[in-house]
């Protein structure tokens, strides 16, 4: 048995944990539907978030930035609410990445307890600047999470899951083994990233959410986004 939530997320209960599958619609962009579905998850059980298709997450839903600034801010602050939920959960939230990761998809991984990448070669990218956007959590609190050298690489070019492992975004590379992770003694218990302290810092991103909304709704940025959609019309 499984629960189908607006076709973009499938939630499958497995033993001690819930498996959340991003099913591939719009290359797993973080749409409002995705946010609403993730916010409905409780913190009573452990959670594994994974993907179908070649992309774990394409990041921000660019179509949002063609709406009013008020709607854009509502969207960005819903993302912020989800991040604070991740940080506040007592149970572990684990990501199993089986595809490339872009923009906000990369940034959300900072707030998971444990991140497994299926292959060293998977692509990570924060290059939304090509659309006039910027990664708000990397810019605002990245200094607490990464060394200056690693942060400079992350913001200047695409990088691999192997590099993300060295940076500290990815915890482990290889096939996910739920039996190993969730069988006593719990394998990752001693290795879960101590993310709760970030709760004290995460609101430092709030001013950058306002700046992102301002930049993202400029005519220049909207023109780039419209050209992107026009060039990709009809593509899956």
Automatic annotation (TrEMBL):
Alphabetical list of CDD domains matching this protein: crotonase-like (cd06558)
InterPro entries: ClpP/crotonase-like_dom_sf (IPR029045), Enoyl-CoA_hydra/iso (IPR001753)
Pfam families: ECH_1
Record-level GO BP terms: fatty acid beta-oxidation
Alphabetized GO MF terms: catalytic activity
Protein name (record): Enoyl-CoA hydratase, probable
